[in-house]
């Protein structure tokens, strides 16, 4: 088994049809590939068995979560170099099984099988989602998916997110801190919604209560926040009580489709629509439209993806689906806008802020890495590894324009056509 790295590099390049962009270190200590950059470490032959039995991203994810794969050096640089192999290759070249079907590559595939060692494959890591029941995006299954992602532990989220406890893209200015940027994001949303003393705000997917608290404390709004996570709700209620705002803010464990007490003056939906799913997105838009009074405003803050040449080929990212956001789906920005319009909304403003999310994610990764041992103790080694990879890879995806994030300001414009929207909603840079 001497010099496993050279053998593995040669086989991988034959199967992938190009050179590996990072150096590789194998379980026997051997190395191969370009020097001077990050090193992809294959700690155990189990990693190969995982990738053979689950070709593509899911096999790689299982190897990473289990600790069979690792990166030495700059993780962002490694992901950036590997993105051409992992995410930006033509669809027909992404699967190892496709390569195995090519007679010219079968010999390489057989050599890879011998190098992988005894079969069958290892069991999936314990952190992989299991037991999903029912059709996607039913109330029961949505609740299971939300619990998998958000009921990891409030202390873990506090470590990653920092004191703001805001789990969505911040809004940055030069030299600001993460807390500054998250406060500015919440205030931006409040100003776009034109919140005033006594306004009723519904915060859909309220998380740990940060938007609800900001709206009540800074603008005098009366807020209802809904979440499907009991851990989030308990945390938010304590924060509200500690600030003496229980007379202005109510947190419910409730599906947004079951909110009975509209109409509201305004609705904020911040990083929640990604959980809704394509089959339910029109229902989501219709429900929020029905919960607003005429003239009321919706601020929908949502991650988007680039449109596919053939939208029928879109698939949920396997790593995200299995380990991070079960059943989460991203829509192109244009589809979100069209759906809001079809529900009756007048979309008055769309602000694209994808670079802001890359900055936010890099700060979250830094928080996690700075307190790594405590993060592992609060969850598990696998869970901490999931979050490090997910956030770092997402940062690279935002930077490379594979995904974006947008704020849609929409109005339930009354029959009169009076939207009460300023003639100029934003100020752009002046010419110099």
UniProtKB/TrEMBL annotation:
<protein>
    <submittedName>
        <fullName>Class I SAM-dependent methyltransferase</fullName>
        <ecNumber>2.1.1.-</ecNumber>
    </submittedName>
</protein>
<dbReference type="GO" id="GO:0008168">
    <property type="term" value="F:methyltransferase activity"/>
</dbReference>
<keyword id="KW-0808">Transferase</keyword>
<keyword id="KW-0949">S-adenosyl-L-methionine</keyword>
<keyword id="KW-0443">Lipid metabolism</keyword>
<feature type="region of interest" description="Disordered">
    <location>
        <begin position="116"/>
        <end position="144"/>
    </location>
</feature>
<dbReference type="InterPro" id="IPR029063">
    <property type="entry name" value="SAM-dependent_MTases_sf"/>
</dbReference>
<keyword id="KW-0489">Methyltransferase</keyword>
<dbReference type="InterPro" id="IPR003333">
    <property type="entry name" value="CMAS"/>
</dbReference>
<feature type="compositionally biased region" description="Basic residues">
    <location>
        <begin position="133"/>
        <end position="142"/>
    </location>
</feature>
<dbReference type="InterPro" id="IPR050723">
    <property type="entry name" value="CFA/CMAS"/>
</dbReference>
<feature type="domain" description="Polyketide synthase-like methyltransferase">
    <location>
        <begin position="156"/>
        <end position="396"/>
    </location>
</feature>
<dbReference type="InterPro" id="IPR020803">
    <property type="entry name" value="MeTfrase_dom"/>
</dbReference>
<dbReference type="GO" id="GO:0032259">
    <property type="term" value="P:methylation"/>
</dbReference>
<dbReference type="Pfam" id="PF02353">
    <property type="entry name" value="CMAS"/>
</dbReference>
<comment type="similarity">
    <text>Belongs to the CFA/CMAS family.</text>
</comment>
């Amino acid at each position: 088994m001497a010099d496993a790295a050279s053998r593995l590099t040669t086989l991988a390049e034959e199967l992938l049809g190009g050179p590996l962009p990072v150096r590789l270190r194998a379980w026997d200590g051997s190395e191969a590939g370009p020097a001077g950059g990050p090193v992809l470490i294959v700690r155990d032959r189990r990693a190969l068995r995982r990738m053979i039995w689950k070709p593509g991203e899911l096999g790689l994810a299982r190897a990473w979560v289990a600790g069979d794969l690792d990166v030495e050096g700059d993780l962002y640089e490694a992901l950036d170099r590997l993105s051409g192999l992992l995410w930006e290759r033509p669809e027909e070249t992404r699967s190892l099984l496709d390569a195995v079907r090519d007679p010219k590559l079968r010999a390489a595939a057989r050599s890879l099988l011998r190098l992988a060692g005894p079969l069958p494959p290892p069991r999936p890591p314990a952190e992989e989602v299991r037991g999903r029941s029912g059709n996607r995006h039913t109330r029961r299954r949505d609740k299971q998916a939300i619990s998998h992602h958000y009921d990891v532990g409030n202390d873990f989220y506090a470590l990653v997110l920092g004191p703001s406890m805001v789990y969505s893209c911040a809004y940055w200015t030069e030299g600001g801190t993460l807390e500054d940027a998250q406060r500015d994001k919440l205030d931006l949303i409040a100003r776009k919604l034109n919140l005033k003393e006594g306004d009723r705000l519904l915060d859909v997917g309220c998380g740990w209560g940060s938007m609800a608290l900001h709206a009540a404390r800074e603008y005098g709004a009366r807020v209802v926040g809904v979440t499907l996570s009991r851990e989030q709700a308990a945390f938010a209620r304590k924060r509200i009580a500690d600030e003496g705002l229980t007379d202005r803010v109510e947190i419910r464990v409730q599906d947004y489709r079951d909110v009975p007490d509209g109409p509201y003056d305004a609705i904020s939906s911040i990083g929640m629509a990604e959980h809704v799913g394509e089959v339910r997105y029109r229902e989501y838009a219709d429900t929020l439209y029905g919960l607003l009074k005429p003239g009321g405003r919706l601020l929908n803050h949502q991650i988007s993806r680039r449109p596919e040449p053939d939208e029928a080929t879109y698939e949920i990212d396997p790593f995200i689906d299995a380990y991070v956001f079960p059943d989460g789906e991203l829509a192109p920005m244009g589809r979100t806008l069209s759906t809001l319009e079809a529900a009756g909304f007048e979309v008055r403003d769309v602000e694209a802020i994808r670079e802001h999310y890359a900055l936010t994610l890099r700060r979250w990764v830094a928080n996690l890495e700075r307190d790594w041992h405590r993060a592992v103790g609060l969850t598990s080694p696998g869970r901490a590894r999931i979050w490090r990879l997910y956030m770092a890879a997402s940062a690279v995806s935002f930077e490379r324009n594979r995904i974006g994030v947008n704020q849609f300001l929409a109005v339930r414009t009354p029959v009169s056509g009076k939207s009460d929207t300023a003639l100029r909603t934003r100020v752009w840079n002046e010419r110099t």
